[in-house]
Specification:
Layout: H1 13-28, H2 44-68, H3 74-98, H4 102-136
Amino acid sequence: MYVWRKELEVGVETIDSQHREMFRAFNSLLSEPGKPDSVVPGEVPWMIGFLEDYVVNHFGMEELYMRRHNYPGYAEHKAEHNRFIAMFYDLRDEIDAEGITPAAAQRIAATVGDWLVGHIGVTDRELGKFLKEKNRK
């Protein structure tokens, strides 16, 4: 399910608020929130623009936190960001070449939704645990 749930919180409000914003944006792409098979193709151009800004700003902020606090999982976390960026631009290239087909719109919705839940639910939560522990010391 591609809806924000409390168990996705990482415990760092700046990161969590940006994640909630991403989920709101992602679900605005869908006619039925939480269901990637209900994508509205007309919303895809807006979502692409949003994602471009998001990956620059949000990933940059997370990576700054990781570097600033010497996060031991930095290299793998950044690699996940880079894989998402590469996948995103592959999808964007497809849309630029072929237009917004229903199949491309579905791939964007499913890929972004799966990545959000997986990355936030595992990788970002690990970062959150680390940052909260650092702040306790």
